[in-house]
Amino acid sequence: MAEKVKRLYVDEMSFRLRLRRLIWRVVYLFLFRPTPRFIVFDRWRLFLLRRFGARIGKGSRVAPDCFVWAPWNLEMGNYACLAEGVDCYTIGPLKMGDYTTVSQRAFICTASHEIKTKARRLFSRPITICDHAWVAAEAFVGPGVTIGEGSVVGARSVVVRDIEPWKVVGGNPARVLKDRTLSEDQLDR
């Protein structure tokens, strides 16, 4: 089975990248993480992420204890949310569409290790969470996954394959549980 995205191997991080990561880590620990959950501080956290290269739409929110490994690989649409305790291991790109939510303590992982060799080289593949999708609490989303528009990933699910639009999935590994349908009063919103 051919992979839809070529694996990007991360054999050695450049000195410049390591320095950038170190500076981000210090900023995260002293200026981002200690902030309370008030609107004014939400804006401050988004400002810090943007200063480090994140592309974030209007109305988006990021909790103070959400950790983004490399903000320059984060793209959030309008009204997207990263909740408390979310871990975004963004060695590769993470793209979140409009009105997406990643709930408490979920792990979004764009990288892993090659298991076909003894060297276990690190590789990265992008993750896309399409518009109106929701990744529930403590779920794991692996490298290269696309979560289709309007889909819901159940709590503590493990997603290692693409999810079709408007599906509800759950389990380990995640499998389709049912179609997601909106009630009549929600269709025009």
Please characterize this protein's 3D structure.
It is globular and about 45 Å long. It has a single domain, classed as UDP N-Acetylglucosamine Acyltransferase, domain 1. The protein has helices spanning 15-32, 39-51; strands at residues 8-9, 55-56, 61-62, 67-68, 74-76, 81-82, 87-89, 94-96, 101-102, 107-109, 111-113, 122-124, 127-129, 134-135, 140-141, 146-147, 152-153, 158-159, 167-170, 175-179. Mean pLDDT is 92; it is low at 1-5. Helix content is 16%, strand content 28%. Strand 19 (167-170) and strand 20 (175-179) form a beta hairpin. The chain contains 2 helices and 20 strands. The chain is α/β, with parallel strands linked by helices. The strands form 4 sheets. It has a 7-stranded mixed beta sheet. Strands 2-5-8-13-16 form a 5-stranded parallel beta sheet, covered by helices on one side. A 5-stranded parallel beta sheet has the order 4-7-10-15-18, with no helix packed on it.
Write a short abstract of this structure.
The chain is built from 2 helices and 20 strands.
> If you consult CATH, what is the topology?
UDP N-Acetylglucosamine Acyltransferase, domain 1
Shape: globular
Instruction: Give the count of helical stretches.
Output: 2
Number of E-type strands: 20
Intertermini distance: 39 Å
- Approximately how much helix is present in the residues? 10-25%
- For the record, the CATH class is Mainly Beta
Biggest sheet: strands, sense, closure? Answer: 7 strands, mixed
Number of domains: 1
Rg over CA atoms = 17 Å
The CATH architecture term is 3 Solenoid
Give the percentage of residues in beta strands: 25-35%
Strand order of the largest sheet: 3-6-9-14-17-19-20
Enzyme class: transferase
Organism: Martelella radicis
EC number: 2.3.1.-
Keywords: Acyltransferase, Membrane, Repeat, Transferase, Transmembrane, Transmembrane helix
